[in-house]
Amino acid sequence: MNKHRLCIVLLLLCAITWTTSAQRRKKNAKETPEIHQTQKPKLVVGIIVDQMRYDYLTRFWSHYGEGGFKRLVNNGFNCKNHHFNYAPTSTGPGHTSVYTGTTPAVHGVIGNNWYDKETDKSVYCAADDSYTSIGTTSAKGQMSPHRMLTTTITDELRLFTQMRGKTIAVAIKDRGAVLPGGHTANAAYWFEGGTTGNFITSSYYMNQLPKWVQDFNASSIVEGYKKPWETLKPIATYKESVVDANNYEGKFRGKDTTTFPYDLPALWEENGQFSILSSTPYGNSITTDFALAALEGEALGADSDTDFLAVSFSSTDYVGHKFGVDSKEIQDTYLRLDKDLERLLNGLDAKVGAGNYTLFLTADHAAIPVPAYLKDQKVPAGYLEMDAIKTQFQEFLKYRYGTTDIVKNISNEQIFLDHKVVNNLDIALADVQEEIAYEILSYSDIDKVYTGSQMWQQNYTKGIPYILQNGWHQKRSGDVIYVPKPAHISYSKTGSTHGSPFIYDTHAPLLFYGVGFKKGETANRTEIPDIAPTLSVLLGISFPNGATGTPIEEVLE
Ligand code: ZN
Ligand code: ZN
Ligand code: ZN
Question: Which of 82, 87, 282, 380 lies 20 to 30 angstroms, CA to CA, from 467?
Fold first, then answer.
């Protein structure tokens, strides 16, 4: 009996101690969010690596230093199962989707170039000839984000801070800067190339380059990269890529082999002068130099209104297109990008202060291994014979409709019909779309087809049709969509490309680092449009106005 009572007393004691410590824990937990709600980053840094596959993090991991990718992964949050949830997976849609938190179905940037039904011509996603070039006499500055229909996270931050928070966007590619900057950017800058190594902009933003940009352009920084490209480490240690001399790589003009070293001064004139730097890792180093100059020149992160620095590393894409995802050249480009990231992070620590900024790193699409290489490894892969397909298709059109005029344009793996011609036939538009879809499906390298009517009427929730529907814009997209077989592309037989709804094009890295983000990792699926809403929650600002993504709760502190 006494023993029993003692037990009860002991149990009660235990319960009391447990409750008080639990209360203490609860109190602590309650205090933490209040601190973090008031602690906002002074600067958000958005990094897009053009054409970065997720496995570039893991494949080259043992070569990376502690201060670049590894710093972000080890001290930040790694979303390992991150995907583009739309096609086409290309640069214009990629940059736009990251920053708008939605897909081409909503933001309207349905390709890098597309056939514009209203004006009956092909348009470029960032081109706008109603503005003039600033910093050059060429037309390369005539850009604006006017084809992007919704707001970006950068726009929402500007609006939230009553336009006091600054947005500066930089890239080698114009679209890599213009689209992330949004409609309200203070500035977007990109690399001119050709006869100059200057950064330029559009009169959409300003009428004159600020002094720090003029000074950068007048400096010898870019000229300094006119030097041979050799591997960063001994090439024999690059065991994560195929042998340097192979048939899967493209060549620079004036060089017979696809092997290191690349003597850029000797190749300079034949390969577009300063433009050759874009196709080497030096383009990323130049972007880093310029981003660091922007940090200083614009005093980003210096006051209490959160600023935004949007950086896009374009050269990874040029190198991937030329040499392919398994090349020594791509491995070296990533090892050098790791060093540039380290330089950028050190610059942020010094100027803004560690603990005052927050950062994400992702891609605008991934890329396919060179199909010719896959074929040699017995993986099903191939190249579409587009000329043969076009001839066969035109014969079908003439035979069935009496004219080839019924097709206005074929681009981004979509067929645009001339609706006036269709109206003159005695067949409903949906039926014409379906007939053409069946015809295309009969071609050997085509795997799947969908019609505009299906996109209009169905609500796909998974798989390839879900991805296609997210990329299909009611006003802007085509009448028939076709998908080649996996690993079958319409491209040169050397180098890698992207654009498809398949995993090799959709799986990209997503790293969060800095104020407001936890350390950790997840293998749960996250999607590109989730990034902007996650930042909105962290910053306590509105979601971009077309956002369809979901905040990734597990990464937020
Ligand atoms: Zn790209
Ligand atoms: Zn090579
Ligand atoms: Zn590309």
Answer: 380
